[in-house]
Amino acid sequence: MVWQFAVSTLGMPGTPIGRAARLAADHGCHGLEVRAHPDEQVHIGLPAREVERARVEIADEGLAVACLAGYAKVCAPGPDGPVVAELRALVDLAHRIGAPSVRVFPGGDGESRDRIGAVLDDLRSSGVRLLVETHDSHLTGEAAVRLVEPFGEPDLVAVLWDALHPWRGGEEPARTREVLGEYLGYFQVKDADVELTPVAPGRGLVPLAECGELLSGWSGWVSLEWEKAWHPEVAEVDEPLRAAAGWFARYGSR
């Protein structure tokens, strides 16, 4: 089993990529999960030279790009065209910055099959994997895996298991792990209190110890997602990152 440890730039809103990579490296990370958002240095439409600059700044700290965290919603209401265009742009950006995968959201009750199907060739040609997160309209592993199973290619289209959301949706970690099976492509470490406010891993209610045990035998990226961009009142990323590193040290070597 091989786990690799990363942190998302969601926990460092507005921080230049080079500085974010340095902080990640200082805490023992192997990679950086890069948020692709208009408020950040990396976003759709970024000129090629700036994409290359970001890639080099991450590599210069000895890190890989663990994932490109995009905000496309594959089940969003409305026409397919804009969603497919956004997916293609994210896949291209992931390829250029050196990310092995791109994270997207479900985002509604619409039909995702044609939208994901439209970018399969883009995924194959770029070597990028599409990860649908357990999130919003599809909180649980059982719900999210239904979006990717029809393609039958877990190396191409899989699920990102966010530790918080299936649990708050009433799905026990053992069930999440069971239903995802070979479609588990990535794991995000996250903890929260009773109000669902982010807290350092191990200090909240999310059963992260159980998740760690259940991930035994699995290989892939695990990343701390600290939602400071959405909760500016919470602590800086250093404290939760130290806690996440401790969780990784305990379970990632098994």
What does this protein structure show overall?
The chain is α/β, with parallel strands linked by helices and 254 residues long. It is built from ten helices and eight strands. The protein has a single domain, classed as Divalent-metal-dependent TIM barrel enzymes (TIM Barrel), CATH 3.20.20. It has an eight-stranded parallel barrel, surrounded by seven helices. Helix 6 links the parallel strand 5 and strand 6. This is Sugar phosphate isomerase/epimerase. It comes from Umezawaea endophytica.
Number of strands: 8
Q: Which residues form runs of ≥5 with pLDDT under 50?
A: none
- Summarize the main sheet: 8 strands, parallel, barrel
**Approximately how much beta-strand content do the residues carry?**
15-25%
Radius of gyration: 17 Å
Tertiary shape: globular
Distance between the termini: 7 Å
Instruction: Name the structural class.
Output: alpha/beta
CATH topology, by name, is TIM Barrel
CATH class: Alpha Beta
Total individual domains: 1
Strand arrangement, largest sheet? 1-2-3-4-5-6-7-8
* Helix segment tally: 10
- What portion of residues is helical? 25-40%
Average pLDDT for all residues:
97
CATH homologous superfamily title: Divalent-metal-dependent TIM barrel enzymes
Give the name of the CATH architecture. Answer: Alpha-Beta Barrel
* Quaternary structure classification: single chain
Organism: Umezawaea endophytica
GO molecular function, one term: isomerase activity
Keywords: Isomerase
Protein name: Sugar phosphate isomerase/epimerase
